[in-house]
Amino acid sequence: MKFGIIGLGRFGYQVATMLTENGMEVLAIDSNESIVSSIKNNVTQAICMHMTDELSLRSVGFQDMDCVVIAMGENFAESILATALAKKHLHVPLVITRAINDIHCEILTLVGADRVILPEKEVGINLAYELSAPFLYIARLSKEFVIGQIDVPRQSIGVLVGEDDLLASYHTVCIGIQRDDAFIPSNIKTFNSLAFEADDKLFVAGYKADLASLSKL
Question: 202: Cβ–Cβ under 8 A, 6 or more apart, which residues?
Answer without folding.
Answer: 149, 150, 151, 152, 167, 174, 176, 177, 178, 196
